[in-house]
Write the structure tokens for this entry.
Amino acid sequence: MRRAYLYTIIAVVVWTTGPVGAKAALLASGEGAHLTPMQVSFWPVALGWIALILVLIAQRRLGLLGAITARGWAVLAAMGLFGWVGYQVALNMAYTRLNLAEALIISYLNPIFVVLFQGRSFSAAARLISGWEQRPEVEQRPAAGRLAIGLALGLLGVAVIATGGRLGEIGVPRSATGAVLALCGAVAWGVYSNLGRFVRVRPGMEARGLSDVQNVAAMAVGLVVMAAVMAGGGALRPPIGFDTALYLGRLGPAYVSVWIPIIAMAALNYAVGYTLWLRAIEDGHRLGQAHKLPPLTYGTLALAIAGGWLALREPVGTGFWQGAALIAAGNLVTLWPERSGERGRKS
């Protein structure tokens, strides 16, 4: 597992460029305007997708796209809509209304929604599209009571963040729209993560071994949708002439082209991060210990919040810490392993 842990740790570090780079790009200005959340979603993903295509070509794996069945492509289309349009755009819209730390911690409710959508209702709906399901090796769904408590704690944390820690002012929240958008991003990621086990492949192929190919395919669908939306609004042109401020300690702000965070996100967050993460998961599955890796990804949250504070001067207030504690408690209640005796009685 050493290699899997190493790949995961590197992925966690480079994934930090995602939220920090997105917020920096949204703060960029030029020609009296700012980039839209859709533009900040599209360009890093587009460049990252090209890099991942080149990786598949170098590995001679691009032809494996043909192993996905027609119904598998239908599921991948849904994954592109939820994961590469819904999640990305909703979170970037939230960044325009909330501080980076606030929007990001709300989006980290996604583990609760990942577990929530492991239920029978979601599976039945997904099978209507796919006609097939690859069941997870370990059933992670807790009892309904625990799931309800975890979700309630998480939503209470969202309310605290939206009101700046003043729940008595819940009728006039500080930024309800931003909180709801970040919450929508968490829901979209929960759907995206669960759809992955419904991608049907041709007989004789192992679905899990094609996770990198499926990822590139879903990204392609998301890019087509975003490009169509931007083309309709005349915003598909490359963002030229936009600059953003990055703080370098006591040296003050350094104004750089918006392409610096865009390229950093494309190369590190998408190309390097996703490639290493998928390799780590493959190694973990082969050794039967893949479940030990996801908890490490919470390191990205801490590093991104620190990065936003250092590089963007993003403040972190009391309301954030209160809401973060509730969201962390909700995730902990939902994901805490059950005792073997309880699992045995359920089975």
Residues 6 and 204 are 31 Å apart (CA to CA). Strands lie at 29-30, 33-34, 243-247, 253-257. The chain is about 65% helix and 5% strand.
